[in-house]
């Protein structure tokens, strides 16, 4: 299986070459085009309960599974929002926790499940009580709103990240929720309420734009009835 990320930046396209027998799992509306040798099916990863868990994590109930059954072929995929696509290779030693709408596709060997957060994280992280966990051996393709920036934390190093800018982080990293400033009034007036504090070692992937903030801005332009 070979792949290439075309037109990197705001409107990228993922092109994947599948050999006969290869398959790719992707978000249910991610396919842009495919060769006639490829079949596409809707499947629930992990069965019905797995589908429910994905819905609770803010993702679609079904995956697309694209399989090259009648010879080799080409598939192109794209996310529904403008922003980067990046590839992350997993060797099976750890998984990724992925924010909602951050998963685009995964190669053979990649498994996707839901991960339940604790009460404090679920209530205040902005991600809900469930996030996606991506594990296994293979390549996972993530997408973002805006560009993706990697924050590489050394052992013991800490970094504070706005909840709405998170894309993914290793499942072995701990994080906690806290106020952005010392007091609730300052947090409210600064526009930064709750943030996530990560502690290294590990790499935290963030997106340069805030989809929630953009939605609020766009809503402000709609004339009131």
TrEMBL record:
Annotated protein name in UniProt: TIGR00266 family protein
Taxonomic superkingdom: Bacteria
NCBIfam families: TIGR00266 family protein
PANTHER family, per the entry: ALTERED INHERITANCE OF MITOCHONDRIA PROTEIN 24, MITOCHONDRIAL (PTHR43657:SF1), TRYPTOPHAN RNA-BINDING ATTENUATOR PROTEIN-LIKE PROTEIN (PTHR43657)
Pfam families membership: AIM24 (PF01987)
InterPro entries from the UniProt entry: AIM24, AIM24_sf, Trp_RNA-bd_attenuator-like_dom
């Amino acid at each position: 299986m070979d792949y290439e990320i075309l037109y990197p930046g705001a409107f990228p396209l993922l092109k994947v070459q599948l050999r006969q027998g290869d398959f790719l799992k992707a978000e249910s509306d991610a396919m842009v085009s495919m060769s006639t040798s490829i079949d596409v099916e809707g499947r629930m990863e992990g069965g019905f309960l797995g589908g429910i868990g994905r819905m609770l994590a803010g993702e679609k109930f079904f995956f697309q599974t694209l399989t090259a059954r009648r010879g080799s072929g080409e598939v192109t995929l794209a996310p529904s929002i403008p922003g980067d696509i990046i590839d992350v290779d997993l060797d099976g030693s750890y998984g990724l926790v992925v924010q909602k709408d951050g998963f685009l596709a995964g190669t053979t060997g990649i498994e996707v499940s839901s991960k339940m957060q604790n009460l404090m994280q679920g209530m205040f992280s902005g991600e809900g009580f469930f996030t996606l966990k991506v594990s296994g051996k293979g390549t996972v393709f993530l997408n973002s709103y805006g560009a993706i920036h990697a924050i590489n934390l050394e052992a013991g190093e800490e970094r504070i990240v706005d909840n709405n800018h998170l894309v993914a982080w290793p499942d072995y990293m701990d994080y906690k929720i806290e106020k952005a400033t010392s007091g609730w009034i300052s947090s409210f007036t600064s526009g930064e309420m709750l943030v996530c504090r990560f502690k290294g070692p590990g790499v935290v992937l963030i997106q340069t734009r805030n989809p929630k903030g953009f939605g609020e801005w766009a809503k402000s332009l709609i004339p009131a009835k």
